[in-house]
TrEMBL record:
Residues 404-416 have a biased composition (Acidic residues). This is Vacuolar import and degradation protein 27. Residues 203-212 have a biased composition (Polar residues). It comes from the Eukaryota. Transmembrane segments: none annotated.
């Protein structure tokens, strides 16, 4: 919904811009005999109105619902002879506040302590010199729309002062009308204001005022003061604004901040910053803030900030998008309240405090996700988890030098050419069926890029669309395979397509039936074989070797929740599993993902988060990589077995499988067990919390990455990574990751959700993208560095 609206002429005055909903408050000095905070209108609109040439005013109106009767009587026949023209005008004045737009209004955008954006300006209508007003903006308003309204106010001020149009005035010039920012980004007035009263009820601060409404509906509870001096002492975290707090949800990271009591596991003092997405920098909020990690229940932990001005907490969870940076001893995370996501940074005083907090957080989040005591982990696994969670600044120079420098050259090119060619999935549909993509289809569900024949396949309901890249480097629709059905003519809901036998065939599964696989002849567009597996529900499958689809190899691999097995369709029995090349476990490990190298080494990931590496099937794994806590959704492996890429919901894990020390140095962990003294180097690839602020505020959903891929090709070195989240395609440079670059990724923004994306085979410059209803070809060089300007433009 477009919240800020433009209006044409309305009566005698022109409305320029409007915010249709918010809360209007009056801020007074501490010395005032009246309350420091008074809610004027619980529901109001804010408008910019033009009164004449170079004359503008800011107008706040009370919103009155249709059918409301201001005189308090429900009778439509009620009349009062005492109501005069003057009293009607007075009533209108009570419901409308007008402020002339001039520089001395000191109009600015701030954040209140509940995480809501607010406009604050001087109350030129008040009877006190230092009085201010604030308009707390509805959470549904996007950050871009807030910024646009702010700039419109400054344009009006410019025109009022200079008596000429501001159409060609730069953003920097307009920002000169912004008052000097306060030391803190939140709405916190000077010493003459009592900010602690922002949360108390009207009856407490102004008992003489007649108050017939429910105060709890209009005002915030006062924060509890925290006593946090001794480790092990129980504390209570502050309560959040009752009117703003959203109910907890597993899909959205929103904390109720109800009183949480428990034992402090660590307590340290640190500086707290909050990220301003418009300034693109962290702003100091408070120094010397007590930071505590509290055990609030069985495997439940809470991060609590207990400062004078910064006072809130959140659950220890991957949804907070936590990130540690060793270079400045900082911890950064996202915090969502009232559908607005902020990014906070805690900067510790020294490396010692940073390490204490990092170790404690590592243990807390691992126990939260695994529901086990930390002490149950072997020491080497504990060290692996603690070492991996820190953003390690070591440089792998040998590997960096081996990576292709072509990437950096192409990324620096300036090219304004439109970056995408798009083909609508309407091409899938039968024009005579009367169906259309908007109301009869679930949309595209997967993308598969062939290694031969310049073909890509997109699954849509019971159809598969076939696409190619033409000579002009544009995407072209070739054909559609429709009404995919089994041998009994039963319509399938195909998923997880895999190219097979020189890319002339495709292996499919049916989302409704997990105990069969289907072999489809692509040229004929028909299922030609069906394979069953005794007592095994096939979770995932993969080629026996990474590039087997280029040859006529018929075997493939599969996993169930507790077994890894080879499949040979030529076996002359109903069960197609090769028994002596299978491994069944007594324990249900919840296997979830499978990948192979060019030599046939096998990697298996699980929902537990651990990964097993095999040099061949039928035996125990050579190496077990411990879980960092998050479930593994997908894995892929580089052709030579050096690199493994795992996809989790909120992060990617890039693992170096080469052994660095001992008698097996130079080997990879598929062939030899990783020494106990050495852990596989793991890089956690995340969207930084400050960049995630933009994405989360746009999508209103938690981060959830689609399957990540390396660029792939015969004799091509893997040096790029591709995934997506919501409408954003995301590319990582491995060279930048290994060099310790804090922002080693770029984005490309679409106007709908990216279902899946992958590199064109043997061409790391082209990216094929399956959107919900379209298929796109994009260039990697058109991906952009993340900054606020990316989100000011419309998606392509």
């Amino acid at each position: 919904m477009n919240i800020i609206k433009k209006f044409m002429q309305l009566g005698e005055k022109q409305e320029i811009s409007m915010i249709p909903s918010g809360e209007f408050n009056l801020l007074r000095s501490r010395k005032s005999p009246k309350s420091s905070l008074e809610c004027i209108y619980n529901d109001a609109m804010l408008r910019i109105r033009k009164n004449g040439d170079w004359n503008f005013e800011l107008v706040v109106n009370k919103i009155v619902e249709v059918g409301d009767n201001n005189n308090g009587d429900d009778s439509s026949d009620y009349t009062d002879d005492s109501v005069s023209v003057l009293s009607v005008a007075s009533k209108r004045r009570e419901e409308e506040w007008n402020f002339e737009l001039k520089k001395d209004l000191n109009f600015s955008k701030e954040w209140n302590k509940n995480g809501d954006a607010a406009f604050v300006w001087g109350n030129t209508l008040g009877d006190e010199e230092v009085e201010k007003v604030q308009f707390v903006i509805t959470p549904q308003l996007s950050l871009t729309e807030i910024e646009n309204f702010l700039l419109t106010v400054y344009r009006c001020m410019y025109e009022a002062e200079h008596k000429k149009s501001a159409s060609h005035v730069s953003r920097e010039q307009l920002y000169k009308y912004r008052p000097e920012p306060p030391k803190e980004l939140f709405v916190t007035e000077s010493d003459s204001y009592d900010e602690e009263n922002l949360g108390v009820s009207l009856s407490e601060v102004n008992p003489s005022q007649d108050n017939t409404s429910d105060n709890d509906d209009l005002f915030v509870d006062a924060p509890d003061n925290l006593d946090s001096k001794a480790k092990g002492k129980k504390i209570k975290t502050p309560k959040k604004d009752k009117t703003k707090a959203s109910p907890s949800s597993s899909e959205e990271h929103k904390e109720n901040n109800k009183g949480v009591e428990g034992e402090k596991l660590c307590l340290l003092n640190a500086k707290v910053f909050v990220y301003d997405p418009f300034e693109e920098k962290f702003m100091i909020q408070e120094e010397n803030v007590p930071i505590a990690l509290v055990q609030s229940g069985k495997y439940e932990f809470w991060l609590s900030m207990e400062g004078k001005d910064v006072e809130f907490g959140l659950a220890v969870s991957p949804q907070a998008n936590p990130s540690f940076t060793l270079s400045n001893n900082s911890f950064t995370f996202n915090y969502t309240v009232s559908r607005i996501t902020l990014s906070y940074k805690i900067e510790f005083n020294d490396f010692k405090d940073f390490t204490i907090f990092e170790n404690c957080w590592s243990k807390c989040i691992w126990m939260t996700l695994n529901k086990k005591d930390w002490e149950e982990l072997p020491k080497n696994e504990q060290k692996y988890i603690e070492d991996t969670i820190i953003a390690d600044l070591e440089r792998d120079l040998d590997t960096i030098l081996k990576l292709d420098d072509e990437e950096e050259e192409s990324e620096d090119e300036e090219d304004n050419e439109y970056s995408k060619s798009v083909v609508s999935s309407e091409a899938f549909e039968d024009p005579n069926s009367g169906s259309n993509k908007s109301n009869s289809s679930k949309g595209n569900s997967s993308l598969t890029v062939a290694f031969r024949g310049n073909r890509s396949y997109v699954v849509r309901d019971d159809k598969i669309g076939v696409f190619k890249v033409d000579d002009d480097d544009d995407l072209e629709f070739v054909s559609a395979i429709k009404n995919i059905s089994d041998k009994n003519k039963k319509i399938l809901d195909p998923k997880d397509p895999m190219m097979y036998m020189e890319d002339r065939f495709m292996v499919l599964s049916d989302s409704k039936n997990g105990d069969k696989l289907y072999k489809m002849d692509i040229e004929r567009g028909k299922i030609v074989d069906e394979w069953e597996f005794k007592d095994k529900n096939v979770v995932q499958y993969a080629p026996t070797k990474k590039f087997d689809q280029l040859v006529a190899e018929q075997t493939l691999l599969g996993i169930s929740d507790k077994s890894v097995f080879k499949i040979d369709p030529r076996i002359n029995t109903k069960n197609k599993i090769v028994q002596d090349e299978s491994k069944d476990y007594a324990t249900k490990y919840n296997f979830s993902s499978l990948a192979t190298t060019k030599d046939g080494y096998v990697a298996v990931g699980s929902k537990r988060g651990d990964i097993r590496l095999y040099d061949r099937l039928g035996i125990r794994a050579k190496t077990l990589i411990p879980s960092l806590g998050q479930a593994i959704k997908y894995i892929t492996v580089s052709g030579d077995g050096r690199w493994l890429l795992a996809t989790c919901d909120a992060s990617l894990l890039l693992m170096d499988l080469s052994i660095k020390s001992g008698k097996n140095a130079g080997n990879i962990s598929f062939l030899k067990s990783t020494p106990a003294s050495e852990n596989n180097k793991t890089y956690i690839l995340q969207i930084s919390p400050e960049h995630a602020t933009h994405i989360l505020n746009y999508t209103k959903k938690p981060l959830c990455f689609t399957k990540a891929y390396f660029n792939t090709g015969i004799n091509q070195k893997e040096d790029r990574i591709l995934t997506s989240n919501g409408p954003f395609a995301i590319s990582w440079s491995m060279k930048k990751v290994l060099a310790g670059d804090e922002k080693p990724y770029k984005l490309d923004w679409y106007d709908s959700t990216v279902i899946e994306n992958n590199f064109e085979y043997n061409n790391k410059q082209n990216v094929i993208v399956a959107l919900k209803n379209d298929v796109s070809l994009s260039k990697i060089k058109h991906f952009k560095n993340v900054n606020k300007s990316i989100f000011k433009n419309e998606p392509k």
